[in-house]
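Final report, Chapter 2: Outcomes

The project's central promise was a pipeline that accepts a single protein chain and returns its three-dimensional structure in a standardized token representation, suitable for archiving and comparison. That pipeline is now operational. To close this chapter, we reproduce one record exactly as it appears in the project archive, with the input sequence first and the structure output second.
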Amino acid sequence: MNAQLLPVLGAQRAGTATAEFLKIGVGARATAMGESFVAIANDASALYWNPAGISQFQTNEVYFAHTEWFMDIKHEFLGAVYHLSSADAIGLSVISLHMDDMPVTTEFAPFGNGNYFTFGDVAFGLSYSRKLTSQFSFGGTIRYIEETMDILKMRSVMVDFGTYYWTGLGTSRFSAVVTNFGNRMSPSGSLTLNSGQIINQFQEFSPPTIFKFGFAFEPIMDDKNMLTTSIQLNHPNDNSENICMGAEYSLLKTFFLRAGYKLNVEEQSISYGAGVATSIDGININFDYGYAAFTNLGGVHRISIIVKI
């Protein structure tokens, strides 16, 4: 029997973690590169991918990203990074997953009984990063999350921790990141069944903790052209290990083409996108678009804007 490069071990853990919205990739640039981004993380989207990255650039930035997720679900990310000094940076971020209210259906009213319910997720993050040396930086994020499931709510506090290290060999660098680390959680509130029974105790679930290790470098870099490549190993607590790879080609640091590929990720494989950097009244702005293909669910479109001050 031929051995698999990445054996499907751990797939039986699928569905064992909650707050899955935290695993939806942020930003058109990173997702177009197959989400192989923790060792790049050199813009304000690092607030999501690797908090150590917010001290890797010197501009203060405001970042907005919008994702058209499946079934008319919308995913938004808003972040801002401010540099306290050349070595210290802080950031704030908000993640939102939302949709229109849905009709309540029962076995006696399969098309709705006139009532509606709401489902949505939100997360607020506070990040800090510091360069300890010219080669090494670290960072962390404290994130409050809240899930609303009609009359039930689930709340928790989670932590991200990341590192960023330049090896000194060309432009090569690697990063190690742990995201969504926290306690098990369960919904709060009570449900009244049709029988009149009241349920106010629910099963606890783990947060969607992921360990990520990434490596990136530029095999081509001159005054006009730059090619950035990246590879990343992901170890989630609720599924199999997987590998993602990505590349970004930059022309005159103005026009960008990107592509990525995921291995051992169910439903996902190819992604691609493009971007442009411009200046308006002395303010630098990046516009990016990304597309990720899914085998059976179709594709996901993302747009993002970075304002650099």
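Archive annotation: The first strand starts at residue 61 and ends at 68.
This record, like all others produced under the grant, will remain available to the consortium after the project formally closes.
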